[in-house]
Amino acid sequence: MGVIEDDEPPLKRVKGPLEESKSLPVDHSTAQPVSCSLGDKMARPLTSQGDGETIGSQGIIKKSEFIKIITKALYSLGYEKSGALLEEESGIPLHSSVVNQFIQQVTDGKWDDSVAALHMIGLSDETIVKSASFLILEQKFLELLKMEEVTAALDTLRNEIVPLHVNLNRVHELAACIISPLQCVRLGISGQDTEVTTSRSKILEKLQKLLPAAVMIPEKRLEHLVERALDVQRGACVFHNALDSDLSLYSDHHCGKNQIPSQTLQILQAHNDEVWFLQFSHNGKYLASSSKDQSAIIWEVIKENGHMSLKHTLCGHQKPVLTVSWNPDDSQILTCGLEEVIRRWDVSSGECLHVYEKSGVGLISCGWFPDGRGIFAGMTDRSICLWDLEGRELECWKGQRTLRISDMAITEDGKRIISICRESAILLLDREAKFERLIEEVGMITSFSLSKDNKFLLVNLINQEIHLWSIEGDPKLVSRYKGHKRTRFVIRSCFGGLGQAFIASGSEDSQVPFYVMKR
After folding, report:
1. pLDDT at residue number 501
2. What is the pTM of this model?
C-alpha cells in the first residue's frame, strides 16, 4: 500500500470528500490532468507552502488555511479546474497525501486499506479513530450483505467491528440484519442507496464531520465564515432596518439614522376632536383611527405616493370610540365605544354588520379570535367575554379580569388572553390550561402593546417609563426606556421596524421618541 507523494500534481488528486467523489469514474480509474493553457503558464509550485505566513492587516489569518478554504469553496461550487490550478499555483494542497489516499480508498471501497490509512493520518484522539473506523467497517459490512457474502459480513462484524467497543446498540442492529434482511429495512440501516458511489459519498460526508477540520475542511466553510461576518455587522448596526437582500459583500454594512422615519409626510385632518387610537391593517393598505368625536375613520394608502385618502367615516356610536381592531384578513373591523357597544363593520362598503352589547354592562375593549370567527371584549364589570360573530356568548371569565382600560390582546394561537386586571398588574390568562400569571408593575399602567411574535409586551406606566417584558414562560422584565413626556393623556408605545427591533412612543412634547430594543 504505497503512500502518494506530495509532489503529485493536484490535478491528479481526489479533490474532496463530497461532490468531488461523484465525479470519479465507476471503474475507479485515475482522473486525467485537465488541459489548460492558463495552468501551463501560471501553475508553478512555490518553494514555500506558506505554513508560517499570515495575511491581512492584523496578521492573524494564516495564509495556508485561507488558501485551503478558498480551494475547498471552488470545488464545492463546481469549479474543479480553478480549484486544481489554485493548489498548483500556490503550492498549498487542499489535503495531505495521506488524506487524499484515504479519501480515494473509501471511494474505491478498499476498506482494509482505508482503515490503515486512517491510522497513518496521525490523529491524537483515539475515540475519533475508533468512531471513524466503525463508520468504514459498517459500510463494508453492509456492502458484503448486499452482495450476499454473509460469511464475510459476519467475520467483519465479529473480528473487526465488535473489538472497537463502539456503539453497541448499533452493533446489535447490524447483527439482526444477518438473521433477517427485513430488519435492515425496519431499522433504516439498509438504506444504503442503490448506487454504491452515492452511499460511499455519504460515508465520506459523515467522516468529514467526524474528523478534525484541519484534516478535512468542513463543507461550505467559506460561506459559513462570510455569513458570520455579516451577522456580526448586522448585530453591530445600531439602526439596522434593512432586509437581508440589501446586505453586500462589497462594503461593510451600516444603517444610518435616516433609516428611521423622521419627517412628517402628511397630516390627516378629518376628526372633530381628539384622536384616541390608531391601527394599521395587517396588509398595510389601510389605517383606522378612532376619536372622541364618536366616530372612526378608515384611511386608504395610495400606492403611487404612499399618502392616505379617506375611505369611510364610521358613525353610529353614541359615545367616544375607544379603540379599533382589524380582523385577520382585514375585510372587517371592530370599533368599541366608551362603556357602550362594539360595532362590526365591512371595510369595503363601510356598512355596520352587527352590534354587540350586554344588558346592564358597558364594553371597554375588543379584539378578534385568531381565526376571525369570533370576538372578545372587556366589560365594565371587570369580566372578559367571548362571542361568535352573531353575538352568542361562548365563554365568560368573571371577577377581577380587567380594568376600565381599553387594552386587551390575544395571542395568535388563541390560547392566552392578556388584559390589565389591576392598576399595576397585567393578567396573562391561559384559556386551555385554566392557568393565570400576573405581571406586577411598580406603578400605574396606562397601556400595553403585544409584539407580533407574541413573545414580548410593552407596558407604559404613569411615571413616564416604558417597560419591555418577556412573556415566554414566567414573565421577565427585560428593559426600561425613558424619554417621552406624559402629564395628562394616555401615552401609547408600539414595536416597529424590521423584525420589530425598534420601539416608538407617543409624547406630550410633540416628539416621537425612538428606542432601539435590546431583547
Report:
1. 85
2. 0.66
